[in-house]
Amino acid sequence: MRIDLHTHSTASDGTDTPAELVRKAAAAGLDVVALTDHDTTRGHAEARAALPAGLTLVTGAELSCRIDGVGVHMLAYLFDPEEPELLAERELVRDDRVPRARAMVRRLNELGVPVTWEQVARIAGDGSVGRPHVASALVELGVVPTVGDAFTQEWLADGGRAAVEKHETDPFEAIRLVKGAGGVTVFAHPAAAKRGRTVPESLIADLAAAGLDGIEVDHMDHDEPTRAHLRGLASELGLLVTGSSDYHGSRKTCRLGEYTTDPEVYGEITRRSFGAFPVPGAGGV
Ligand code: AMP
Ligand code: ZN
Ligand code: FE
Ligand code: FE
């Protein structure tokens, strides 16, 4: 069984539509794929409708969180998408992305970059707008060669000249909300140092005590020693360990299924959830 528990579509900052994403997931030989767009579940219906036979869809989202000034991402799986408290928080974060992206455009204009909100809005389409869309605009304008090159202090990295913060949820609150909606939480790329500051291990221990289910270990932003270390930490804290591609289509270099999750861990995630169930593609597995 090949299981990839972290992907993005055009519902946020990926470049494949949800339908394209599930087709590519099946073509890549995956048995299970989770759709985890930033702060939104709006891609789920389309992914579900297009689900190829033999592929199972795990509904999810990647929730933008912040604690002690450090941005962290919380993967949430199999929660009830209509549970009102979690839904309200997701909407708050997602809606704040618009004025924040407009503010980043203004900053860039002040820095002499002729980017416009219309351009960023066109690139984002109806997906939750984020820095990768602004980064794509910078690529279009020839300011940087690739999206990744926009994530520096010069431009859009955390604390960068044109970066603006958005409303983000306290991760303890996120765990509480996701559990209340019957879902399971996995701390995404917890030691991805190249993205900016990371949280201390004592915080991961505190989150584990507050009900965090797992940590994402096999991820392109963790080197081998970091992964080995995180595996040890997970075992100490009784946390599940996942691996996933964090696929963003052409906006990032990782391939679908580049990293995968152990079937036993996937089984445990499905056992712990009660807000939603994995959706088997027509024909089933
Ligand atoms: P936002 O949610 O708008 O703050 O944007 C965060 C997204 O930007 C992440 O989910 C990544 O997809 C992307 N990102 C963050 N850091 C980097 C980086 N160093 N290189 C490329 N993409 C990045
Ligand atoms: Zn993203
Ligand atoms: Fe992330
Ligand atoms: Fe992601």
From TrEMBL:
<dbReference type="InterPro" id="IPR016195">
    <property type="entry name" value="Pol/histidinol_Pase-like"/>
</dbReference>
<dbReference type="GO" id="GO:0004534">
    <property type="term" value="F:5'-3' RNA exonuclease activity"/>
</dbReference>
<dbReference type="InterPro" id="IPR052018">
    <property type="entry name" value="PHP_domain"/>
</dbReference>
<dbReference type="Pfam" id="PF02811">
    <property type="entry name" value="PHP"/>
</dbReference>
<dbReference type="InterPro" id="IPR003141">
    <property type="entry name" value="Pol/His_phosphatase_N"/>
</dbReference>
<dbReference type="GO" id="GO:0035312">
    <property type="term" value="F:5'-3' DNA exonuclease activity"/>
</dbReference>
<dbReference type="InterPro" id="IPR004013">
    <property type="entry name" value="PHP_dom"/>
</dbReference>
<feature type="domain" description="Polymerase/histidinol phosphatase N-terminal">
    <location>
        <begin position="3"/>
        <end position="67"/>
    </location>
</feature>
<protein>
    <submittedName>
        <fullName>PHP domain-containing protein</fullName>
    </submittedName>
</protein>
